[in-house]
Design a protein that fits this description.
The complex is a heterodimer of chains A (339) and B (386).
Chain A (H helix, E strand, L loop, with lengths): L1 E2 L2 H15 L3 E5 L15 H5 L4 E3 L4 H14 L2 E5 L10 H7 L3 H4 L9 E6 L14 H5 L5 E3 L4 H13 L4 E6 L19 E2 L12 E4 L6 E7 L3 H13 L3 E7 L2 E3 L3 H11 L2 E8 L4 H13 L8 E5 L9 H4 L3 H12 L3
Chain B lengths: L36 H4 L4 H26 L14 H9 L5 E3 L5 H6 L4 H9 L32 H14 L6 E6 L6 H13 L3 E7 L2 E2 L2 E2 L12 H5 L2 E6 L3 H16 L5 E6 L18 H9 L2 H11 L5 H24 L18 H16 L8
Parallel strand pairs in B: 1-2, 2-3, 3-7, 6-7
Antiparallel strand pairs in B: 4-5
The chains are: A alpha/beta (339), B alpha/beta (386).
Chain lengths: 339, 386
Amino acid sequence: MATMNIIQAVNNALHLAMAADDNVVVLGEDVGKFGGVFRATVGLQAAFGEDRVIDTPLAESGIIGAAIGMALYGVTAVAEIQFSDFIFPAYDQIVNELAKFRYRSGGEYPCPVVIRTPVGGGIRGGHYHSQSPESLFVHHAGLVVVAPSNPYDAKGLLLSALESPDPVMVLEPKRVYRGPDHGKNWGSHPKGQVPEGHYTVPIGKAAIARELTGDGTAVTILTYGAMVHTCEKAAALAQQEGIDVELVDLRSLMPYDLEAIVASAKKTGRVVVANEAPRMCGYAAEITSLVMEHCFDWLEAPVTRVTGYDTPFPYTLEFAYLPDAGRVLTALRTVATYG
Amino acid sequence: MSSAAHTLPTVSTLQSAPTVSTELLQVMAPDGSVVDAAFIATIPEADLIRLYEAMLAQRVYDDRMIKMQRQGRLGFYLACTGEEACSYGPAYALEARDWFYPAYREPGIALWRGMPFQAWVDNMVGNCDDPAKGRQMPVHWTARAQNIVSISSPVGTQIPQCTGSAYAAKLMGHDAVSICFFGEGTSSEGDFHVGLNFAGVWKSPAIFFCRNNGYAISTPFEKTTAAAHIVLRAHGYGIRGVLVDGNDVLAVIKAVRDAADWARAGNGPTLIEAKTYRIAAHSTSDDPSSYRSREEEALWAELCPLKRLRAYLETKGLWDETKEQACVDTSSARIIAALTIAESKPHPALDTVFDDVFAERPAHLDAQLNAMTAHVASGESDYRAG
């Protein structure tokens, strides 16, 4: 075991994968000599050479298009898109090509590319370094989408992604890359303890990030990524008000763990769904709908969403925009006292 | 007082760029007379006959498919009439280990490289034996066993993919080149720029084959670019460029062979621009009479790749009208038989809608398959099993 932040956990996973298999390639903007703008690929080029850790020209559709060709041929390509806000020049390659290759070829051409990209706000990055585009990718059939919230899961899910026969997008929560709460490091967090060797976290399985204590009105929070930590903070505050939170970290957005979602919703009958992305057609909307379809008779209150607003992502006012623990707490009170 | 420009420091370690030629590469003139006897001598006469037979057969298949579509028996078709040399030539020129990314006007790649004929026809119908399992329109086939990648409708996406496959082959130490096909219309897409630029930097053993057939559906070449040739862009990427007569199948073979030799020697990619003409309509949904003249069509019909090779073969005493008619009859019977079989086969099963989305069907798709199956079985579905 070692104390790692998310960057170190990702870097460690890539080192392991590249050492184990000569046909693993990392490509992206500034990933080689420089080691990536977030330092996630530091040391890889020195260890594995320029042919396998490739500083590409600045063109996201080229990064993903070339990664697709590599994967079709038999190379495992790990593409880094520097910020998920920059991913849209590659959107066609991702949703029309990568996602559809296995299907459109009748199963002849699987295309297991791994795409790593940082998502989310709270880093003073403005519109072009802060967005959360997950719903735009889960909507297109054929992509596996995972959203780890901590170093242990980030490494385990990335290693699972590398072994997956399907294309996988790993959405990395950049706000908590180096610590779960505005600079606090991962050393004191249980998920900051990471095995140095190989292990995987299964795709498609949620985790319980906080269990019910049995003390207070039980409420479920369903969330993922950096919002897990915002919700943990809200849950601690809510406990003092007699609200007992079961916090489900979805971890995997496609496929999703319906069993875990339904089990928690039926257990508490009161559900808050939180995501940082805008409200309209956000991932929280789909999860809310699933809870309604599968748990209607168990619900004690309307399922309530906490989300970003339906505006572009602001710069100066980003902490007014972002869903914070206070907004989650308000939703918990509403749901806990309904009826 | 003026002075000579100072030399600026450069961060590039590259030396001189590969050549880009705008001289039209020709092995055979339009009347079948020989331009490059030395090259013709490298192709066995039996192969010349096989190439001609294959291109003639293709014209028969295309004519038959269009008739079938007009009768309402085929949803859609894209013929390659007039451009046969641009798929049979490259298919002949390369090796079994090489990778192909066709667009949708290169049937010669499938049929020359040995995709089973019935499978190719099953794809047109979208039946249960279609290799693409009825999931794509006609002419969007796939042939993994022949190293031919599944076809995408929005052409251009395959250009950076070809760059990636070529790079992967080099990384793995394989002596394989990757070739992709697209029209001059596609050269306006961002993926063209991105794919060629990456390939130049990486020295990917790739061949970018631009079939300049004059039209992107109705958009003429002069509305695609202000440049005289697409191949001029090779300069900008620091890669080799070749202009070839796309209606001269031997010149196409030479251009592709040279490009493959260049790539296999570690020199990187080549952009080939083949000048040809889409005698066919863009597709069965198109009517070219609204945007081009009959005179222009007649001019190019005279330059047809089949006429040229036939003239040469006849001069050599290798072909005559009897052989021509026999080949047409055999090909016609072959395509009609295959289509009859294809039409008799049932649709793909309902679960094929949900398979291959992922390697394993996840729970939410199991649930959706069950819902679809129940709805179809209820008799209240618009779908009728075929």
